[in-house]
Amino acid sequence: MNVADALRVATAQCATISDTPWLDAELLLAHALGLSRGDMLMRQHDLDVPADFAELVARRCTGEPVAYIIGTRDFWTISLAVTPAVLIPRPDSETLIEAAVEHFADRAPARVLDLGTGSGALLLAALAQWQDARGLGVDASPAALAVAQGNAERIGLAERAAFRMGNWAQGIEGPFDLILINPPYIAHSFMLTGDVLHEPDTALYAGEEGLDDYRRFIPDLPRLIAPGGVAAIEIGYDQRSSVSDLLQGAGLAVRARSDLAGHDRCLVVTHR
Q: Do both 116 and 215 map to the same domain?
């Protein structure tokens, strides 16, 4: 079977589980070949289909996310290693970096804090964006911190990125020019489907209303946000009002930023 035929067959198989079956098939085949997706497509007429491609497709058909199968995910301008110990970085979360870029249009943040860093996606994206910035990533999971540290070393940012275990902002000394937070925000009663079923529960669920973790870190934000600084916080599509109320109750100014789908995705938080 040639590459084109293998992609057609794999696409049909992945269509039972995925909204992007053709992309999934291309990414899996490129991984099996040890090539970038672009190189694979350019050279497909000269390539043979590896024997282990069928196994990768079979794993995808069980619902396992492509990012976990191939072990990487692109985010902003960087490529990250991901494992089942961390949430898979998503384009929606790039909205936080976009908000930060807008806020610092005429200057650069010097100190960056990423609470609940996971794979290190937000912190490392920020440090790649501002090459003189230094940052700290905090997470409660040792396995997640190991992934984040490995990503920092792989990307060449280890000298500017530090990581530590912690419970949100407890024990963190500020202030920081930029704070990035993508907390768990799904209510326990909400029924999840698709790839997210394979991701760590601790990175997804946050109590009966999905607000438990916001309540934990918001009281610390006034002391952690530097004068002129900003916090960019991810929210669920229906949480703009509830999380804004918590932030305003802490004496902070809030505005919302939408993702590419038009959903409220990021709260941009500053001192009043």
A: yes
